[in-house]
Amino acid sequence: MARIELKKYSLGEELINSISHGVGAVWGIVATIMGIL
User: Fold this and answer.
1) How many degrees, rounded to 5, is the angle at CA 23 between CA 27 and CA 18?
2) CA 36 – CA 13 distance, rounded (Å)
3) HSE value, Cβ hemisphere, 13 Å, CA-based, for 15
4) What is the distance between the alpha carbons of residues 37 and 7, in angstroms, rounded to a whole number?
5) Which parts of the chain fold into alpha helices (H)?
6) Which tens digits make up the pLDDT trace of 8-33?
7) Alpha-carbon gap, residue 22 to 3, rounded angstroms
8) In angstroms, rounded to a whole number, what is the distance separating the alpha carbons of residues 10 and 5?
């Protein structure tokens, strides 16, 4: 049981990490465009 919970938790953490990395990338692109403009 505990193992499944841990796996679910790490999957959720991975999802959160990838989302925050995606947001960071988007902000980087926006900042670059703003810098060009």
Assistant:
1) 145
2) 35
3) 6
4) 45
5) 2-36
6) 778 888 888 899 889 999 999 999 99
7) 28
8) 9
- What is the reported pLDDT for 12? 84
Q: Which two tokens stand for residue 35?
A: 């810098």
Q: Is the pLDDT of residue 36 over 60?
A: yes
Q: What distance separates the 2 farthest-apart alpha carbons in the chain?
A: 54
**4's tokens:** 């499944």
Tokens of 2: 């505990």
Spatial separation of the C-alpha atoms in residues 7 and 11, rounded to whole Å: 6
